[in-house]
Specification:
Length: 113
């Protein structure tokens, strides 16, 4: 029976050792590559959470301002209606005064005759 020589086993053992060393280096490289990526993901996640909180705060401020502006719009509409009613009332008074002036002018004209 042909048995492999002692050199074959020695080479095979060395090959396995080399393979194990390479596997260990590869695992270490993967770890050293992934670790910064994991930290980057954590940083990005924290940044996203922080940005979301900022956006929510800005949204709350904008909604508050929109509410205040809507109230101001309603107040100004009511005031506009009040002023329009006042203008209409004053226009009626002016029209009545003109009519009265015209009538009085007619009476004065008849009395002069």
């Amino acid at each position: 029976m042909n048995r492999p020589s002692h050199t074959f086993y020695t080479c095979r053992r060395q090959g396995i050792k080399e393979h194990d060393k390479l596997s260990a280096y590869q695992a270490q490289d993967c770890y050293s590559i992934r670790l910064p990526q994991i930290f980057d993901v954590d940083k990005n996640s924290a940044a996203v959470v922080r940005e979301k909180a900022e956006v929510e705060a800005a949204k709350g401020q904008a909604e508050g301002q929109a509410g205040r502006l809507n109230q101001e719009i309603e107040r100004l509409r009511r005031r506009t209606n009040e002023l329009e009613n006042e203008v209409a009332k004053l226009n009626r008074i002016i029209d009545e005064a003109k009519l009265l002036e015209s009538r009085l002018g007619d009476k004065v004209g008849r009395l002069e005759v």
